[in-house]
Amino acid sequence: MVTKENKKTTPKKIIPKKTDTTKKTTSKKHVQKKAVPKKTTTQKKPSSSKETKAPKKVKHPKKKQYKNLRIKKEEELTTLEVLESAIEGNPIVEKPKHGKTFYLIFAIIFYTAAFFYINNIVYNNSDLLQSAIFAFAALFVAFVLLLFNIHMIIINFFYLPFKRLIKQSKYELKKEIIFSVGSNKVQTAFNKYKSVFTLILYALISIGLMYSVISGGIERQSKILSIITQSLFTELIFLIIVCSWQYLFYIIPSILEKSLDAKNGFILTLSAAVMVIYVIFSIFNVTYLAEIMIFILIIGFIALLGVNLNMIVGEINIFQNLRNRKNKAVTRIVFLIFFGFHIYVILYASVVAYSIYSWEPDSYNFAYTESRSVINDNLYDSSGEPIDEVYDQMGTEIATVYDSQGNEITDFFDDNGYAIHDIYDINSQMIFNFYQDNNTLIQTVFDEYGNQLYNYFYYDGTLAVQSWETIPADYGDFLYYTIVTVSTLGYGDITPSQNYNIAQIWGGFLSMYGLTFFALSIGFVSNIAMEGVSVKREED
After folding, report:
1. DSSP tag of 397
2. Rounded to whole angstroms, how far apart are CA atoms 174 and 420?
3. Are 425 and 432 in contact (CB under 8 A)?
4. How many angstroms separate the CA atoms of 492 and 507, rounded?
5. Among 318, 443, 447, CA closest to 376
6. What are phi and psi of 483, to 5 degrees?
7. Which entry of 5, 235, 412, 449 is 20 to 30 Å from 496 by CA?
């Protein structure tokens, strides 16, 4: 009887197993269909906690915004998209592509701006044809960069670090972040609001740099577009330093699950502090500590080379990360480590070269120099009285002058920047002599130091003297000099003077850096690339 019952029950047991598997498959389908409402209900339950309120407000509109877009797979992500997903914690969606209308409007706006800038700055509003040709070339280069998606690399390079800082600052202000308690209240407050203080410090330095460049441009009487260009270029250099710093210390170590040790981190922090101090001294024109600052900057650069050497020999265990992660994106991220670090080192070295030039402008020789016109209308007569107004021989104040064609002269300079000496009155009579209000002929003029001046001319109601002075080099010139020297190209247009040993020593030091550390880093990065190729083959 027992055997019969077992025989009868065995088919019954087999049948429910089949029905169970069908139920399981149907339940899986049922779960897949209701996966979205389950996630929404789990978010609604713990609504009282602070941690669930913040992601509820942020993620909900993003799902609505990208609900019709495809989420990219992990193997489709670029390096910066991997960093972006790690910073935001959200999946990367495939964004819609722009149409022909967008690119047509972009081309018109870009071409107009490029033509206006080139014609005003490069050709001084004197050559429309060449300005139009170069503007078209600039537009072509812009579309080549768009074709290879270079613009997104540049945008994300600056965008991701500040997005991380702003995100961390929001968490700190909402008190949703864990912080370490310091030895005193000041240190505790800094640890509690570290990202907020960092953003405030960056903003203050940026405002100080912009103020320094704009005020210097106004004093030199530069064009408005030239002042804007110098301001944007200075801001760009500052942002490169800031973003490289954020990638090196915060973003990339979190991706690689490794960080720099305390010794190297302390050296990098000191080097950044020295650069900040130097920038502050430049803003406030502190020059009496120039030699000390040059010495400190050079010592800091040597310390940076030590950090570079530690990175090359594997201080952050890069290959270990590559072999453990088995991800080709990590290879590109590792390349960003050395790219960002060497940008920081080159910028630091250019600051040293520029500080030597600021200390003594004759320490460098320039093959090509530019001059600018300087107008001195602070003139005096032979009796020491200032010349503010000039009159003709009839005692009438000369207020309006004309050229030989009878056109009124308003800028008093020709197209080449030279002063116009031949002026005429309303009756087309050339004005040779100038008088003071007491009908005294002005024969000699002097400056405020009592030096006699010649070749004076009529200038906006008074007399003036024109002189030419060499335009001093700026930071961009020494950034170019540093890149050319480190890359061992050495064009020779900027060379250290033989009369200043410190400039020669620094130039030779940069050349040795390019031949040794820079070459070693390139070889190390190539090894990382080969490691990435092997990882990609294993993945395939």
Report:
1. B
2. 66
3. no
4. 12
5. 447
6. -65, -45
7. 235
Q: Kindly list the strands in the beta sheet with 462-470, ordered across the sheet, starting from the edge strand earlier in the chain.
A: 371-376, 462-470, 457-459
Of 169-173, 193-197, 267-271, the one with minimum mean pLDDT is 267-271
Task: For residue range 501-535, list pLDDT tens digits in order.
Answer: 999 999 998 888 888 777 776 666 666 666 655 65
Same domain, 410 and 321: no
With helix as H, strand as E and coil as C, how does 523-535 read? Answer: HHHHHHHHHHHHH
Please identify, among 196, 231, 256, the residue that sits at the C-terminal boundary of a domain.
256
Instruction: Dump the DSSP string for 55-124.
Output: HHHHHHHHHHHTTTSPBPPGGG--HHHHHHHHHH-SPPB-PPPP-HHHHHHHHHHHHHHHHHHIIIIIST
Give the whole-angstrom CA distance, residue 34 versus residue 8.
Answer: 39
Residue 67 lies in a domain: no
Rounded Cα distance between 374 and 421, Å, is 16
The Cα–Cα gap between 369 and 281 comes to: 27
Pair (493, 348) in one structural domain: yes
- Rounded to an integer, what distance in angstroms lies between the CA atom of residue 462 and that of residue 378? 9
Tokens in use for 288? 């009496």
Instruction: Give the span between the Cα atoms of 490 and 496, in whole angstroms.
Output: 12
Cβ burial 239-273 (10 Å sphere, 16+ → b, else e)? bbbbbbbbbbbbbbbebbeeebeeebeebbeebbe
CB 303 within 8 A of CB 267: yes
Q: Which of 242, 247, 296 is nearest to 274 (CA)?
A: 296
Domain residue limits at 159 = 150-256
Tell me what pLDDT residue 78 has.
67
Supply 231's token pair.
């301001």
Query: Model's pTM, two decimal places?
Result: 0.63
